[in-house]
Amino acid sequence: MDGAIEKVSIVISQGSLEGIYPGLIMANGARAEGMEANLFFTFFGLDAVHKSRQKRIKLASVGNPGLHIPTWIGGLPGVSGLMTRYMEDRMEKLDIPSVPEFVEMIGDTGAGLYACKASVDLFGLGPDDFIEPVQDKIITVGDFYQLAAGGQIVFT
Protein backbone atom coordinates (compact mmCIF):
# COMPACT_ATOMS: atom_id res chain seq x y z
CA MET A 1 0.00 0.00 0.00
CA ASP A 2 1.38 3.38 -0.98
CA GLY A 3 -0.54 5.34 1.67
CA ALA A 4 -2.61 7.31 -0.83
CA ILE A 5 -6.02 8.41 0.40
CA GLU A 6 -8.75 6.84 -1.71
CA LYS A 7 -11.82 7.89 0.26
CA VAL A 8 -12.70 10.81 2.48
CA SER A 9 -15.81 11.40 4.58
CA ILE A 10 -16.34 14.94 5.77
CA VAL A 11 -18.54 16.01 8.68
CA ILE A 12 -20.01 19.51 8.39
CA SER A 13 -21.52 20.59 11.71
CA GLN A 14 -21.52 24.39 11.54
CA GLY A 15 -24.07 26.47 9.67
CA SER A 16 -21.95 29.54 8.89
CA LEU A 17 -19.98 30.38 5.74
CA GLU A 18 -16.70 29.62 7.47
CA GLY A 19 -18.13 26.37 8.84
CA ILE A 20 -19.53 25.06 5.55
CA TYR A 21 -17.05 26.13 2.88
CA PRO A 22 -13.99 24.21 4.15
CA GLY A 23 -15.87 20.91 3.87
CA LEU A 24 -17.23 21.76 0.43
CA ILE A 25 -13.78 22.78 -0.79
CA MET A 26 -12.23 19.60 0.61
CA ALA A 27 -14.93 17.39 -0.94
CA ASN A 28 -14.56 19.14 -4.30
CA GLY A 29 -10.79 18.68 -4.16
CA ALA A 30 -11.15 15.03 -3.27
CA ARG A 31 -13.48 14.41 -6.21
CA ALA A 32 -11.11 16.32 -8.53
CA GLU A 33 -8.32 13.97 -7.41
CA GLY A 34 -10.48 10.93 -8.12
CA MET A 35 -11.22 10.10 -4.49
CA GLU A 36 -14.55 8.91 -3.20
CA ALA A 37 -16.12 11.64 -1.05
CA ASN A 38 -19.05 11.64 1.35
CA LEU A 39 -20.44 14.70 3.14
CA PHE A 40 -22.34 14.21 6.40
CA PHE A 41 -24.32 17.28 7.46
CA THR A 42 -25.14 17.40 11.16
CA PHE A 43 -26.45 19.97 13.68
CA PHE A 44 -26.32 23.46 12.14
CA GLY A 45 -24.42 22.13 9.13
CA LEU A 46 -27.82 20.90 7.96
CA ASP A 47 -28.45 24.48 6.80
CA ALA A 48 -26.16 23.80 3.81
CA VAL A 49 -28.69 21.29 2.42
CA HIS A 50 -31.91 22.78 3.86
CA LYS A 51 -34.19 24.09 1.08
CA SER A 52 -35.11 27.39 2.71
CA ARG A 53 -31.86 28.07 4.57
CA GLN A 54 -29.04 27.22 2.18
CA LYS A 55 -29.35 30.52 0.31
CA ARG A 56 -29.14 32.54 3.55
CA ILE A 57 -25.90 31.23 5.08
CA LYS A 58 -24.09 34.04 6.91
CA LEU A 59 -20.61 34.64 8.20
CA ALA A 60 -20.44 34.38 12.00
CA SER A 61 -19.30 37.82 13.12
CA VAL A 62 -19.66 37.44 16.91
CA GLY A 63 -16.66 35.88 18.62
CA ASN A 64 -14.99 34.93 15.35
CA PRO A 65 -11.25 35.36 16.00
CA GLY A 66 -10.50 35.11 12.28
CA LEU A 67 -12.22 38.46 11.66
CA HIS A 68 -9.82 40.26 14.01
CA ILE A 69 -12.55 42.54 15.33
CA PRO A 70 -13.79 42.86 18.91
CA THR A 71 -16.74 40.63 19.78
CA TRP A 72 -18.94 43.61 20.59
CA ILE A 73 -18.44 45.04 17.09
CA GLY A 74 -19.43 41.70 15.56
CA GLY A 75 -22.67 41.86 17.52
CA LEU A 76 -23.77 45.23 16.21
CA PRO A 77 -26.83 45.15 13.94
CA GLY A 78 -25.91 44.62 10.31
CA VAL A 79 -22.28 43.59 10.85
CA SER A 80 -22.90 39.92 10.04
CA GLY A 81 -24.76 40.85 6.85
CA LEU A 82 -22.07 43.34 5.84
CA MET A 83 -19.25 40.84 6.44
CA THR A 84 -21.21 38.14 4.59
CA ARG A 85 -21.69 40.39 1.55
CA TYR A 86 -18.00 41.29 1.61
CA MET A 87 -16.96 37.61 1.67
CA GLU A 88 -19.47 36.66 -1.03
CA ASP A 89 -18.13 39.43 -3.27
CA ARG A 90 -14.56 38.23 -2.72
CA MET A 91 -15.54 34.62 -3.44
CA GLU A 92 -17.43 35.63 -6.57
CA LYS A 93 -14.31 37.39 -7.89
CA LEU A 94 -12.41 34.13 -7.36
CA ASP A 95 -15.14 32.12 -9.10
CA ILE A 96 -16.04 30.26 -5.90
CA PRO A 97 -19.66 29.13 -6.22
CA SER A 98 -22.37 29.99 -3.71
CA VAL A 99 -23.30 27.32 -1.14
CA PRO A 100 -26.30 26.02 -3.15
CA GLU A 101 -24.27 25.90 -6.38
CA PHE A 102 -21.30 24.26 -4.67
CA VAL A 103 -23.43 21.58 -3.00
CA GLU A 104 -25.15 20.82 -6.32
CA MET A 105 -21.84 20.73 -8.17
CA ILE A 106 -20.29 18.35 -5.64
CA GLY A 107 -23.38 16.11 -5.73
CA ASP A 108 -23.16 16.03 -9.53
CA THR A 109 -19.61 14.64 -9.28
CA GLY A 110 -20.96 11.56 -7.52
CA ALA A 111 -20.08 12.56 -3.97
CA GLY A 112 -22.46 11.28 -1.31
CA LEU A 113 -24.57 13.92 0.45
CA TYR A 114 -26.14 12.77 3.71
CA ALA A 115 -28.12 14.34 6.55
CA CYS A 116 -27.70 13.14 10.14
CA LYS A 117 -30.88 11.44 11.32
CA ALA A 118 -30.34 12.41 14.96
CA SER A 119 -30.01 16.10 14.03
CA VAL A 120 -32.95 15.93 11.63
CA ASP A 121 -35.07 14.47 14.44
CA LEU A 122 -33.70 16.93 17.02
CA PHE A 123 -34.74 19.93 14.93
CA GLY A 124 -38.09 18.42 13.92
CA LEU A 125 -37.19 18.28 10.24
CA GLY A 126 -38.13 15.77 7.58
CA PRO A 127 -37.13 14.72 4.06
CA ASP A 128 -39.16 17.51 2.44
CA ASP A 129 -37.04 20.13 4.23
CA PHE A 130 -33.94 19.15 2.26
CA ILE A 131 -32.73 19.57 -1.29
CA GLU A 132 -33.45 16.65 -3.58
CA PRO A 133 -30.17 14.70 -3.38
CA VAL A 134 -30.46 14.60 0.42
CA GLN A 135 -34.19 13.88 0.86
CA ASP A 136 -33.72 10.11 0.69
CA LYS A 137 -30.29 10.10 2.35
CA ILE A 138 -31.06 10.80 6.00
CA ILE A 139 -28.84 8.30 7.79
CA THR A 140 -27.70 7.38 11.28
CA VAL A 141 -24.19 7.89 12.59
CA GLY A 142 -23.71 4.13 12.34
CA ASP A 143 -24.65 4.22 8.67
CA PHE A 144 -22.18 7.05 8.17
CA TYR A 145 -19.39 5.04 9.81
CA GLN A 146 -20.14 2.17 7.43
CA LEU A 147 -19.87 4.56 4.47
CA ALA A 148 -16.65 5.98 5.85
CA ALA A 149 -15.04 2.57 6.50
CA GLY A 150 -11.58 2.30 5.02
CA GLY A 151 -11.21 6.04 4.46
CA GLN A 152 -10.36 9.21 6.28
CA ILE A 153 -12.93 11.10 8.36
CA VAL A 154 -12.51 14.87 8.46
CA PHE A 155 -14.37 17.25 10.78
CA THR A 156 -14.72 20.85 9.66
Describe this structure in words.
This is DsrE/DsrF/DrsH-like family protein. InterPro entries: DsrE2-like, DsrEFH-like. A five-stranded parallel sheet has the order 4-3-2-1-5. The longest helix is centred in the first third of the chain and has 16 residues, at 17-32. The chain is 40% helix and 15% strand. Strand 1 (7-12), helix 1 and strand 2 (36-41) form a beta-alpha-beta unit. The chain is built from seven helices and five strands, in the order E-H-E-H-H-H-E-H-H-E-H-E. The chain is globular, with a radius of gyration of 16 Å. The model has no long low-confidence stretch (mean pLDDT 94). The protein has helices at 17-32, 71-74, 79-93, 99-108, 117-122, 132-135, 141-148; strands at 7-12, 36-41, 112-116, 138-139, 152-155. By secondary structure, the protein is an alpha/beta fold.
Q: Major sheet: size, sense and barrel closure?
A: 5 strands, parallel
Q: Which residues sit in consecutive blocks of at least 5 with pLDDT less than 50? A: none
The helix content is 40-55%
Major β-sheet strand ordering: 4-3-2-1-5
What is the count of helical runs? 7
- Strand fraction equals 5-15%
Tell me the structural class: alpha/beta
The dominant shape is: globular
The tally of strands reads 5
Rg result? 16 Å
Mean pLDDT: 94
Q: Encode the helix/strand succession as letters.
A: EHEHHHEHHEHE
**End-to-end distance:** 27 Å
Pfam families: DrsE_2
Protein name: DsrE/DsrF/DrsH-like family protein
Organism: Mycobacterium servetii
InterPro entries: DsrE2-like (IPR032836), DsrEFH-like (IPR027396)
